[in-house]
Amino acid sequence: MKRALIALGIGLGLVGSTVVSSPALAASPVMLPLASSVSAAQQAATFWLADGAANLKSATPYAVQTVVHGERTSTAIAPDGKPGLVAPMPGPLSLTGKLPTTSGKVFFVGADGQPHWCTGTAMRSNYRNLVATAGHCVYDTQRAGAALDKWVFVPGYSEGTTPSGLYVGKQAVAHYDFDVYADYDRDFAFVNVYNGVVSSSSGVLTDAGRLVDSVGGQGFLYNQPTPSSVDVFGYPAGFNPDGTQPYTGHTLESSTGPTFPVKLSDLSADRPVGVDSRFTGEGSLGSSWLYHYSRDSRLGYLNGITISVSDTDGDDRYDTSVSPYFDGEVAAVYSAANQLASGPIV
After folding, report:
1. Element (H, E) at 52
2. CA 216 vs CA 38, 88, 113: distances in Å
3. pLDDT at residue 86 above 70?
4. How far is the C-alpha of 324 from the C-alpha of 250, rounded, in Å?
5. Residue whose C-alpha is closest to residue 267's, from 136, 133, 112, 110
């Protein structure tokens, strides 16, 4: 489905506590409509929740641009402005577990007409409605200027369940250079979602409230030195080059490691960042990189999003996840999405 890009010329100062600086960029964010009307959102929710959530259960991990050839380097990445951060927003916590309640799967219908999924994470925002993921888990890069269809987010997804409801995407805010120039330094997107819904046995949709009210929202960090360590959370699946399959993609997984600059030979990206991670590529696209993650509050600061994985040491097993460097232009896109409301669909 073709959808027009809309340039966002609104003010771009970050909103929220503990903001260190505001990016001075105004031209980079563009909006990509997803389910623009309530009726379209209801149809998307019904598609995924009907027949006992059959389409959620049958979805397969997205396999577009999952693997790159990368080399670790020691060249420091220079920020494009002053550093800044936005504090996380706590939400209700269960009494068990140490994994973030903000992480989940994003589901959509791909260019092949089949249901697929990536990883996403709930972010702090004015309207408590924001999800961060990879740009090519929103844009259909196999069809220029198109969005992936029936886009939804399910936080806490596990084995076909929707423990905190299903949230339909209203619009995505991304960077102009990703869609127009295929610049993978800009392979990220922030999606405003409608209030969540749950479905009864008879198929009636019930409102589940705003996303961040239900699960909390991660903070945001930009123009920082590459961190000594981040925690990566996602739903990896697929195989290593040696044929082993260490992950099923059914449940949320975590990985912890240092970050470092990388050089890619097969993607257009000038300042990518790598992290020591054993995640395989399929399913982990869109995984959150959280700095200063607390296993008590289950909150931290988003400082990267997995766009691909790489085997940098040649042992036929993936050892590195790759993200764009979070600079002021990422902050400008986040800030634009931060100001957009959504609302309920029932």
Report:
1. helix 38-58
2. 24, 8, 33
3. yes
4. 26
5. 136
Name the pTM for this structure: 0.92
| Amino acid at the residue 301 | Y
Q: What mean pLDDT, rounded, does the chain reach?
A: 91
Alpha carbon 183 to chain centroid, angstroms: 17
Terminal CA-to-CA distance of the chain, rounded, Å?
24
Q: Which residue has the higher pLDDT, 141 or 97?
A: 141
CA distance 334 to 186: 12
Tokens read off for 10: 């609104």
Phi then psi for 90, rounded to 5 degrees?
Answer: -65, 150
Q: What DSSP line would sit under 276-345, residue for residue?
A: E----STTTTT-EEEEEEETTTTEEEEEEE--EEE-SSSSSS--EEEEE---HHHHHHHHHHHT------
DSSP 8-state class, residue 77: P
pLDDT digits (tens, 9 = 90+) for 106-139: 999 999 999 999 999 999 999 999 999 999 999 9
Question: Residue with structure tokens 């790598």?
Answer: 274
At 136, the amino acid letter reads H
- Please report which helix (H) or strand (E) contains residue 49, including its range: helix 38-58
Mean pLDDT of 205-233: 96
Could you give the percent of the chain with pLDDT greater than 90? 82
pLDDT value for 95: 54
The SS3 of residue 155 is: strand
Alpha-carbon distance of 222 to 12, in angstroms, equals 14
**Distance of alpha carbon 266 from alpha carbon 56, whole angstroms:** 32
DSSP string, 211-272: HHHHH-BBEEEES-PPPS-EEEEE---S--TTS-----SSS-EEEEE-EEEEEESSS--SSE
Distance CA(12)–CA(329), nearest Å, equals 10
CA distances from 119 to 10, 20, 189, 209, 232 (A): 28, 28, 12, 21, 11
